Structures are given as structure tokens and as C-alpha cells.
Amino acid sequence: MRQLLLPFIVASLLSTAALAVDTVKVVVRTTLDGKPVADAVVSAVPLDHALPPTAPEAAIEIEQKDQEFRPYVTALQVGATVNFPNHDTVQHHIYSLSKPKRFEIPLYKSGASESVVFDQPGIITIGCNIHDWMLAYIVVLPTPFFAKTDATGAAALPPLPPGRYRLEIWHPRAATPLIQEIVSAPEKAATLEFSVALKPDKRIRRAPSGKATDY
Amino acid sequence: MRLYPFQFRRFSTRLICLLLGLLAAVFAAVYLLIAQANKRNAIEHIDQNLKIGARIFRQNLRERIDYLSGNAKVMSNDFQIRKLIMQDPLDRETLRSNLNSYADRLRFNANASPPVITLFSAEREIIAMSVRETTLGEENVNPFQYLIRLAATADMEQASGYSYLAGKLHVLVVVPLYAPYPNVAGWFGLAYPIDTAFAQAIKNTTLLELTFASNPGEPNHRILSTTLPADMAREVLAAKLPGNGAARDSEILNLAGEPYVTLFESLEMLGEEPVTIALQRSLLAELAPAKALEQTVLIISLAALAAAAMAALWIARGVSQPLQQLAGHTKRVATGDYTQRLTLKRGDELGQLATAFNHMTAGLAERDKVRDLLGKVVSPEIATQLLHSDLQLGGEEREVTILFCDLRDFTGMSEKMAPTELLTLLNRYLDRMSTVIEKHGGVIDKYIGDAIMALFGAPVADPLAASKAIAASREMAQALNTFNRELVAEGRPTLAFGIGINTARVVAGNMGSKTRLNYTVIGDGVNLASRLENLTKDPAYDTPIIVSEATLRAIQDPPPARVLGEVKVRGKAEPVRIYALRAKGESTPPYPMVTDLPPTPAVNG
Description:
The complex is a heterodimer.
Chain A: E1 8-9, E2 20-30, E3 41-46, E4 60-61, E5 63-65, E6 68-70, E7 73-77, E8 80-85, E9 92-96, E10 103-108, E11 113-118, E12 122-128, E13 135-141, E14 146-148, E15 154-156, E16 163-170, E17 178-196
Chain B: H1 11-76, H2 79-86, H3 92-105, E1 116-121, E2 126-129, H4 142-153, E3 159-165, E4 168-178, E5 184-193, H5 196-206, E6 209-214, E7 222-226, H6 230-239, E8 251-255, E9 258-267, E10 275-282, H7 283-334, H8 349-377, H9 380-388, E11 394-407, H10 410-416, H11 419-439, E12 443-448, E13 451-456, H12 465-490, E14 497-512, E15 517-522, H13 524-535, E16 545-548, H14 549-553, E17 561-567, E18 576-581
Parallel strand pairs in B: 14-16
Antiparallel strand pairs in B: 1-2, 1-5, 3-4, 4-5, 6-7, 6-10, 8-9, 9-10, 11-13, 11-14, 12-13, 14-15, 16-18, 17-18
């Protein structure tokens, strides 16, 4: 039985209201006009018990194609390895100046692939020294309970063991992450709807035709 | 002449003064108007230039900001700066030297000072700066941090402002270091000094003097930079009133005795009192081309004045010299010298005047000659009467006392004497008698041979005419005695005369033809006088002077007289009573006195 416990939560601060859920689906919309928000990372960190031991994931891929990073936003658990295959005809020089993981992959040619292990949680912004417009985010999370919203703004978290969780919704254009405490109870499913205030998309538009990026 | 406030003794002075005065007034007015218009234009022009200068100045600052921020963006995308920032721990010294090379690359031009470049972390902590920290103290980081906070809060891609770094005025700009855009990984802070080199650059473009100062008009004021000499810049600040913001209009300040059109602008600072910018241009420098024109106008004016003076002098001399000549001649003519003639070889009015003057002199000479002759021919009184009255035939009726005097036996005497001798004697006699008559106001009407006809009360009426005639006759008698004594002494025969005096209304006037006139009197009264003179020849009367009753009656206080009797007068019914003037020694009357005149109604009371 699906029960809508709290349809809209707009508070950005940690709320004390506890929600009992098991299977959680999150829908994220914009505050301004209610459009679905894609590429938002929803994560849940257990507050009552330790994180479960995680099996090492298979390597995640962020490719460079058409002089763009794909995907735009990647969520992964601490310790995961990311491959950066270059599927373009030109060289790239990708880097990160973000504190959780500073790295660079100096000029590497088409077909080559480099991998980086992300061992600190945090937000990592990746750019390319050759192509200023190339931009990708890697969200390194300390929890295996996370999901990324699709084009409809929906994200389904993996089943959560009972207990309290800190639900966090992050988006590149949100000034701060949206944080909400929820409670997971057995046999309960819920769809939580959130709305976030997004800043205008300031990604560089590529000349001449480029890829029109708009939300 | 009374119209003029100044009287000039000389025509030339007057002409010169008038001409030069007029010209000088015109030139002065023109010169002043030009000078005033030039000054007004210059001030207006400077004022415009100052406002344009202020815009250029701000435009220049904006350009530098854009230049810095544009370059900062390029800088932030450089590989090596990212690599350096990526290092852990940071190699601050290498970063600083890297920023130093950026600063060198970012010189605005060869003369410009290098900008200050700083690098901040995303958390606004200073990482490195292109100058040594000792030069740029920690407190100088604050303006950058302020701008970063401003830019980060408003999510701006750049922020700029003005502040002091190490006590020097700088324009500051902060630009995020994107890694990649729009992810802010750090901040570049760039600062460009607004120093004397900058002011000089503005001056080179706008020809304006620039002075930057803090707290003008206050004791702690400071000149930040200036294109002026230091002491002049201080004068500018002294002239600026404290708290007086940027004025709309320019004003004129005197610096080192030279007027400068000044525009004060205000530059807002980050958390500090605004800096005052004085833009100036020397009025004299602006006026320099106009001054040259004014000089030319002045020189032309002076030359024109000199030329006008010469011309006026020439004209005046051309007029005044002949006039002086004329005046001299007039004076001479006034004294009766008609011999001089003016010689002016001119065809103009003055020439005509000279010719007319010469004619006039000739005419005057002619008239004087005539008058002289007239005085000799007629008595002076008649001559005067003739000269002053219109010569008219006919006359007037008036009371006149007529005196006739005739010599006894002169015809017989004339036969014995040579004609020349006779005439000399006669002239001597007539001269004596005439002198006496004229002395008593009598007028010699004519000489009829040895006879004299004299008038009293004509042509000029005289109430005492009768008594004057009697007095004259008595003195004539004495004069004859004196003359006779002389004649005796000369061995010549003595003379005797008879005098008849009558007073009557007669017709007096100019008589004769149109071309020849005589002033005389006619009437019965004249004939009677002549008859009375004739009666003196009668020994029975025993008197040389016979007077008619009418004459005695005409005297207010008649003299003693002896009645001689009555005579019949032709044309009159009543006989006329005649008297002899009392002779010497006849003091006692057998004769009735004049007071005893019969109460017959007198002719003229």
C-alpha cells in the first residue's frame, strides 16, 4: 500500500518530523514552476545503525563524447572507481580542483581511458583544460542508498532497512542541499515530493551551434 | 560752444580729440567684446572638455577593469595555475612568482605600472599575491575579500571598486577562477594603481590636469596623485570645501596666480570616504590662440588710431592754418589795416572764404575812405546820422535852433588880398568858429562863403539846443577877439561878424538828388535866422548877436537880454520880437529882462 505521507517538503533545514517508509520514491520539482528536475542526487544516510558493508562496485564510466562529459551528474559510493574513456577525436585534459578529489588526466588521446578512485565523500566538479564548456559533477556519497532523478524528476532509492535516515537532495544548481529526516518502516512504500529552488543554468553555451543546454 | 563740456582753444585739438575719442571708444568696445566673448567661449569650452574629460577618465577606468577581468579569465584557464593550485601543500612562492609574470604581462602599456594580482581560495583566503606581503599588508587584502563576498553573494562574474592598497589609490577587480565554469574554485583579485602615470596618460589624451586627493579641505588631506606641481595641487585642495560633493558645474580657481577652470568629481571608495578628483585646464592656455587674435586686434586698433590722429591733424591743419591766417587778417582789418590780402590757393570753401574776405577788405577800405571823406565834408554827427540811418529823401519836422554867422565887409577885404592868403585866413577863421560850435554840440550845416550855418538839436534832438546855441555864440565872440589879437600881432586887419539865432520848427532831412544828398533844414525859421544875422549890420541895434524870442523862450532859465523891438517876418502876420544878448557892461536894464517876456503864447511853451 502506497501512502502519501507528506506531499511537499520545502524546508531546506533538517526537519524533526520522522517519516516511516520502506520503499521510497522521490519526485523533485522546481519551486518556481513545478517542472521535473533531472540530475538531482537523492541519498539517505542511516542515523540509527552503521552503514552496511558494501561490495566493490563495477567501475563507473564518465565518457567524453562530442566534447561533453556523459553523464552530466554521476553519483557513487566512496571507494568507487571511475573510468574516463575518451570517445572523441580530439584530446582532452580533464581535471578537478575540488577538495575531496584533486586530480588531472593530462592530455590523452581518443580511445584512451583513465580511471580514478574517489575515496572521500563530497562534490567534485570536473572540467577540461582544453574545452572550457565541458562540465561534469561527481557526487561521492558515504552511503549505498542513493539514486539520481530521471527526466521526470523521479528517483527510486534502494529499499531502506527500518530506521531513521537523513535524506539529502543535491542538485548542481541548488544553492544548498535539501535535507530531510525520514523513518523507514517495514512493508511501507511512499512517494515523497520535493521542490527545490534552482539557480539559472550558467553552463557555457557552445558556439556555433553547440548543445543547447536548458532546463 | 556752450554745448561742449570742454572748450578747445584749437580746432585741431578738438578734431583730434573727437576723432580719436570716437575711434578709441569703438575699438575699446570691439576689443572688450572680443575679449569677453573669447573668455566666455574658453570657459564654456573648458567646461565641456572637463565634463568630457571626466567621462574619459571613468571610461578609462572601466577599460582597465575590463582589461584586467578579461585577462584574469584567460589567466584562470591556464594549465599551470591550475596545476599549482592543485598541489597539496600549496607552493605559495611559485604561485607568487607566477602571478608576478602575469602582472608583467598585464601592463596596460609600456609606461603603465604593473597591476597587483592576488589569488584567493573559494573560501576567500589569500593564497598568493604578485607583490611581497611586506609591501601589501594583510589589511590590504580586505578590499579584495569585500569584493569577493559581494560577487559571490550576488553570483556576479566580476566585481570592481576603488580602494587604497598600501596607501595608494587603486581600482580593484575580482574575477572567479572557474574550474570549470560555473564552478568557482578560487578568486583572482587584480588592482591597478591610479597613480601619476595614470593621471599623466589621461592628461595626454585630454590635455587636462588631474589631481586625486582624499579628504580635501580637511587637515588630514592627502594628494594621492597629480599632474600638477605639488604646491599647486595643494592650492586646489585648499580651495575645495570639505563635505562639498561633486559639483555639477565647473568653477574657476586661481593657482599660482593663474586661473584654472576646475571640475570636481567624486570617486566612491569601498568602505572609505570618497576620493576627490579635480579636473582642470588653464584658462590662459585655452585663451592663448584667442590672445593672439586680441593682440592683432589691439595692434590694428592702435595703428588705426595713429593713422586717424595723423589724418585728423592733417585735416585740422588744412582748416586751422587758413583760419588762423584769416583771424590774423581780421585783426589787422579791425585795426584799420586794409593793405594785406589773403593768398590761399584752394578751390574749396576756405578758398572761397579767402576770396570773399579779400573782397570784403577791399570793400571796407573803400567804405572807410568814403566815411573819412564824409566826416570832412559833413559834420561828424551828420555823417553818423547818414551812416546809421537809411538814406532817404524827404525828412521830418522838428524844433531846431539855427545859428547864422557872417563876416562883416569880407567882400571888401577879399579884394585887397591874394586868393591863397584870403583862403588861408578864411579857413583859419572858419576852423576856430567851427571848433567852438562843435564844442557846444552844434552841427555845421554848411559854409556859405564866409558864412556859417550851424544847427543845434539836429540831426540829434537836444532839449538844451537853444541855450547851447547862445553859449556857442558868446564863445564865438570871445574866440573872434582872441583871433583878432593874433591877427593884429600878425599885422593883418581884424575881423567882425554878426550872428543871428532863431529857434523854430523846420523840416530836417536829406535833400538833393538820388546820387547827391545834403542833410539840412529848410523853412521860414531858417530864413529868419539869416535875417536876424543881417539885422546885426544895422548900427541902431548895436549888437553882433541877435536872438529871436522863440529861442529865449526855448530856454528854461533865459539869460539876460535886451529887447531890440519887433521885426516883420514874411509870411507871418505877427511880427517877431528880437533881442540882443546883453553885452559886456550892460548890467542895468533900460531893457526888459527875459523874465519879463510878454505873455504871448510861445511857439513851444
